[in-house]
Amino acid sequence: MVDSQQPLRQKGHGLSQHRTVLVAAFEGWNDAGQAASGTVRHLLQALEVTVQEVDHICCSTYYDYQYTRPLMCTVDGRRQIIWPEVTFSTVDVSDNLTLLLEVGPEPNFRWMDFARQSLSIADDYEIDEIITLGSMFNDVPHTRPLPISEQDSAFPPDPSTTYSGPVGIPSILDFTAAESGYRTESLWVSVPQYAGADDCPYAILTLVKALSHHLGTDLPLGNLPQRSRQWKQSADTLLVYNDDLNHYVHRLEKIADTEETEETVLPPALSNQLIRETENFLKSLDSPDSPSPGSVPDSGSNPGFS
């Protein structure tokens, strides 16, 4: 258990103005809509001129190749096998900030050993802080700002809001780092679950902005605003052809708008009604009889999500 009274380690540049921050994201269970890994990959591409790959973790000790399979590809006219790996890259965002970006598939085995190896590599670059990114499908509408949840190791968690349940490698990395005295921050974005499992640029944009706010610097957005608008337009199209989905999203909008208005309290009867309608809608999607005229298109026919 992390001792909330233990002082956080002053790594790296200590009291100087320069910070080195590890930002980590992993593909898989923690990566709904590829928003978490997509955020790191966006930064690698947007800051490509100054990015330098410095290390990697690639070992069958951590991966089940039947689950996370190697890829065959052609590089410079030669066939090669690309094995699953997590890469580490450095980028100087400004004179005062360096990012160490960690991204790759979530390991299948020996998570504690993996977390310790990640921290050993990060320690070589004298990091001052660790930020893990995640994304999860949730009951949120695409027509409103996507919620961001934050957890900072510098503050004791609120027992009434602390999550209890299954976790992924970002949580293991956070926990291991906090036990070692590192300051950690976890940023998670909620992704509309009716949007499908394809890339969600709107969630990536939300995470990039949240990361910018936390770091106190403007990270490049590139074409994310334009891609987000196109994504939301495609989601709007789904509502036109599906009355049930349109009704469901309107209910989510009411909940979202109520949560944003502090002085407005949702009546218990209405709250219970919205919850029941949401549950009934989700059950209808799992029903074998659910495909019908006006039903939600499958992932192969979703406009904008294929």
Automatic annotation (TrEMBL):
Region (Disordered): 280-306
Compositional bias annotation for Low complexity: 284-306
InterPro entries for this protein: Proteasome_assmbl_chaperone_2, PSMG2_sf, Rv2714-like
Protein name: PAC2 family protein
